[in-house]
Amino acid sequence: MIDLAGRALDVAPTLLGAELTSRLGGETVRVRLVEVEAYEGTDDPASHAYRGRTARNGVMFGPPGHLYVYRHLGLHHCANVVVGPPGTASAVLLRAAEVTAGLEVAWRRRLASGVCRAERDLARGPARLAVVLGLTREHDGMAVGGAAGDALVTLTPGTAAEEIELATGPRVGIGGSGPVAAAWPWRFWIAGDVHVSAGR
DNA sequence: CGTAAGATTTACT
DNA sequence: GTAAATCTTACGA
C-alpha cells in the first residue's frame, strides 16, 4: 500500500511507477504513472490552496487519499491526489502515464473529445490523463482505494523488481506564480520514459 | 457586479 | 512557433 500521509514532496516520487486503476463508467482503465508534480498547499505560491480554502479547492484541506479534480480554461480537467496531514492542503498532480490496461476504452475516450495519433500520447499530459481515466469535476472528492476493496479508483505500488530512474525538474505552467516557486524542482518523472510529457 | 487570469491542448501560419 | 478556444474561480469596486 502506498502511504499518502506524508508531505507531497516525499510522496510524489513514490507514486512513479505505481498503477492507478479507474472503474468509472463501468469500464476499467489502468495506467502506470510516469510523471507527477508536488504541490505543498498553503506554503506553496503555485498551489491552488495558497490563498486559503475556497469552494473549489476544499477537498485539498480534507484527509489524504482523495481526488482533487478541477476544470482548467473551461476545456480540460486535471486530477490530483490529496496527500499529507489534513489541513496542509498538499496534493500531487498526475501529469502523465502509460496506459497498461483498457487500451480500447482509453482510445475511445480520447477520440471522442479530441485527436490522438500515437499510443504514447494517450495519457501524455494532465488533461489527457484525466480524459483517459474518465475523471471530471463530478469526481472531485472521491476516495482513492488501495489494492483491496471496491473503490472506483485505486492506487497500487508498481512491481518491486522494477528499477526506476528518477529525474526532477521545475514544475510546468506556473510561471506566473512567481519566479521562486517556478524554480523549485518539484516535478518528478521516470528518466527516459517516452510517456513523459514534453513540458514547456 | 464586472473583470482578469488560469497546474492546457490543439490547430494553424 | 504562435494563437485561439472557453468558462470557472477569484478578487476588486
Total helical segments: 4
Q: Give the rounded overall mean pLDDT.
A: 93
Measured as a percent range, the helix fraction is: 10-25%
Distance between the termini: 33 Å
The profile of the biggest β sheet is: 8 strands, antiparallel
What structural class do you assign from the helix and strand content?
alpha+beta
Tell me the total number of β-strands: 8
Along the chain, the helix and strand elements come as HEEEEEHHEEHE
Q: For the CA atoms, what is the radius of gyration?
A: 15 Å
Strand share of the residues? 25-35%
Unreliable residue stretches:
none
Rough shape? globular
Please tell me about this protein's structure.
This protein is 16% helix and 26% strand. It contains four helices and eight strands; from the N terminus they run αβββββααββαβ. It has helices at residues 8-15, 103-112, 126-133, 179-183; strands spanning 19-22, 29-39, 67-72, 76-83, 90-101, 153-156, 166-169, 187-190. The longest helix has 10 residues, at 103-112. It binds a DNA duplex (13 and 13 nucleotides) through strand 3, strand 4 and helix 3.
Keywords, please?
single chain; 200 residues; alpha+beta; eight-stranded antiparallel beta sheet; 8 strands; 26% strand; globular; DNA-binding
State the gist of this model.
By secondary structure, this protein is α+β, with helices and mostly antiparallel strands.
Which helices and strands occur, and which strands form pairs?
Elements: H1 8-15, E1 19-22, E2 29-39, E3 67-72, E4 76-83, E5 90-101, H2 103-112, H3 126-133, E6 153-156, E7 166-169, H4 179-183, E8 187-190
Antiparallel strand pairs: 1-2, 1-6, 2-5, 2-8, 3-4, 4-5, 7-8
The structure holds a DNA duplex (13 and 13 nucleotides).
